[in-house]
Input
Amino acid sequence: MTILNELGAERVPTWLATTTNPPLTADIIAKIVNNLILIFIVSLLVIVVIVVTIAVCIVRFYRQKNEIRESATGPRTRFRKRDKVLFYGRKMLRKVRSISAATGKKKKMISKLTKKFLQMKKDHLPTQLHVLEPAAEYLQEDVSNVPDQRLPPEVAYMLQSIRMFGVFERPLFLELCKHMQTLHLSAGQFLFRIGDADENFYVVQSGRLNVFITESDSSTVTLKVVKEGDSIASLLSFTDVLTGHPQPYKTVSAQALEESIVLKLPVAAFQEVFEQYPETFVRVIQIIMVRLHRVTFTALHQHLGLSSELVTAPRRKSVAFNSSPAKRGGGAHTNVGSYEENNRTPDLLDSDYTGQSQGNAGFSDGSQQPGVVRKRFTAPIMIGASMSAPVLRHGGGSSASLGQGMENTYPLSTTDEDMDEAMSTAIEAFRMNLGLEDDTLVKDIIHIRDIPAGAYLTKEDSHQDSGLVYNLSGLMAVTQRDGDREILMYHAYSGEFVGALNVLTGEPSVFTVRAKHYTRVAVMPTSAFYSIMSKKPKVVLHVAHIVVKRLSPFVRQIDFAMDWSFVESGRAMYRQGDDSDCTYIILTGRLRSVITRRDGKKQLVGEYSRGDLVGVVETLTCTPRSTTVMAVRDTEIAKLPEGLLNAIKLKYPIVVTRLINLLGHRILGSWQQSSSIASSSAAIENQPSHVNFCTVAVVAVTEDVPLSAFTYELIHSLSAIGTSLRLTSDYMKKVLGSSILESANEYKLNSWCAQQEDKHRIVLYQCDTAMTVWTQRCIRQADCILIVGMGDGEPEVGKAEKLLEHLAVRTQRELVLLHREGGDRPQNTAAWLNARSWCSSHHHLQCPKKMFTKKARHSDYYVKLIRTEPNVHSDFSRLARWLTGTSVGLVLGGGGARGAAHVGMIKSIQVGGGGARGAAHVGMIKSIQEAGIPIDMVGGVSIGAFMGALWCSERNVTTMTQKAREWSKKMTQWWRQILDLTYPATSMFSGAGFNQTIKETISDIQIEDLWLPYFTITTDITSSSMRIHTHGSLWRYVRSSMTIAGVFPPLCDPKDGHLLIDGCYVNNVPGLFFFV
Output
């Protein structure tokens, strides 16, 4: 009020005098807003007028400037109307060869604005896989000839002809060759005949010789015709001479067919060398036993059906050991059951049956090396409640109950006197048969076991360590399985040994040994035998003699006819068009069969690995070789001449049935393969077939790949399939010395690696991160190379990878991409494969989180893991089955399969479908998973293609069921079908809605980005053929495979423009392609 007083009351309005805060009414606010709008409009008009004025001025300025320029140049030339029409006519009719830059920019700008305005998505196609044919070297043999000029021709012949000499070092072999003699034979002259001493090796340097046998009726049968470079030798006779049991020629003779030069090497020369080099001596005997195991007892049994014909069965009566079972305990059953009965009896030497006290600690498998994993057997042991545990004693006098904590197995009441007498008898038997001077080495390692009737000591194809078994009393039956029946090989009476061959070779047992009556045995574990062998190498000879004396004379005839050959990497074993005079059995290594077509193009036929029979079809049919077979890596083979096969057929006509069966399967398989593959895509034709890899090298793309953890996980999964071994450079230096990788020790390293391959089902070579000497060794030894990278990394080629193209030209290479557990779906696989044209295929592996921790780098972290059972559904188990040729495939069929489910020939589950029946695929997959059956690869056609794609994408039954249910609901919505109707020129529906539902369900991904290998079948109506799709857009090929002609229009293949429809028209259940 002070201010108002100073100004005077007359100058202040009355309403302001009464209050200091006059009210703001709506009229006042409206007036203020109107004033502001008016001011804004006026200002805007002023600005517009100014801009227009400036623009007019500029336009006038340029017009005046142009007028001045035109007035200076003269009047403007103009076209006549007819000239203008002629000009534009020629312009429209001429060919456009280029477009100006300005026009292109305008088009791009218009296109960009249009897409932005219409909100159109960018048409971005993912990286497409470029399918390339294998390199020329992959299917070509190495024709270079580099002979060893440092060896005399005679020595080179001997070295190449008898592969066993390859285990000798060069100075040692040259020492042997000092005893070599040269023989000159005229036509008709005998090299040796019946009655001569069998104690020499022969190699034909020139000419030809006939090796034949003389039967009891004086008739002769030719075993083989020996040509230049071939050998005449029996490794069994070699063993007899070394063990001091030389035998003369009883049925075999050799006669020159023409003038010949033969090299002779006495076996006695080896005895001097073996005195100085006992390690080589042991290795040679092991090689002979391994060859006997794989060729005679395994290959001839599997392929020719020979069993009891290979062994002798002397007729003897069982000699009871001192006291009868009744004396040991009146309740003992001397004949619990017949041999055919009691099928659920326990396996007393099974690896699961390991309940032992500390006094029996020596019986555990102490020979198992670090990194070695034995096959596990988890079958429960069936033991009756009325049977007591058998007593186990060792030389130290303490006893332990076998299978502590379990129910009793046999009512036993033995006295100390009986056990001591049995132990002394066993010790003396082992001492004499092993050729030891005293019992110091054996008295503390032998165990006495009482075996009830019907119990197994070992089973066929079992990897358990049964040791060297001596029968003290009772009777054991040795059998071999032939299909669904058991064939009795021989009976092992008291005083005889069992298991000698398995102890020497380390291979799975080829026989089943079962106690036919109550039996007491003495057991020497394999680890104990090897400890004795390291101190007394000659014991290996005596054990080998135990094996050899059990063989039949027929086996010795086979041994004379067989040749042992060595094929270097890249060399051809035989060529297309050669004469077929023998069949081959692969001992170690790998062979590849290639056919050359009339147009000169080479095509891969197949690959063969250890134990396979090669060239049998041409030999039996007496036709020239149809393919060229070459060595992928250094390979050892056994040659079965045509004469030997004829002799076997004459002696045992039952073999003819097996050969006809074998020949029929081979011919039928080739017909099926040619008829189905001929029309397939190039992707399948160029993919190498593989089974049964024996050696695998693992190479890391970058240093951040957890390679050690990867190999530990893989070796853990391989242990469920067979014996496996993981080798690293550090392990090699630890076992064989720090200088083992030097060039001076190359022989020792080669020999040791070959020995490990003989002992184990598969050997895993872990390469170094750099291209070291050890990495090169791994690559040379490998049947297959795994290139391991991180799936979320960049697809760049590593340094070690670049050198593989030159070091491993013929070796199959596989890409393995690791993904973290719970991570995203694989992406950009095509870019990885395009950068590595040498890779045959790829594998996506989801890895547990523990692999990427620091603890996983240490081997101690995986010690506990190795002892657990692997998960058969894991990705590592899937890779392990793929490497060993035991993968399980699921084929989901289409329309006419009537929902049938049946099991394929190897391991292929085929399920039919079609329309509504295809919904049953979900339940079938759920049942397969609940049954514990893994699914390693999936194929499908029609509705099976859709369900298979869902499973490969999700690998979860719940998610797959939800997506399949949602898709089925969409397909039954009538309004979608009405909107998709079109004029029926090609089909009833346009297919747009069908495309959208499939694309929404399985996403727009590539087939190579699926978790599991996948293929689908379509019918190509453009070329009237079947198409197999293993890569490319998933939803497009699934949609094509589900396209019913006349209902939906065919889909265009983006690769070649061919039209594709439902694959059921050509193949409803394509299970055969898993075998391709």
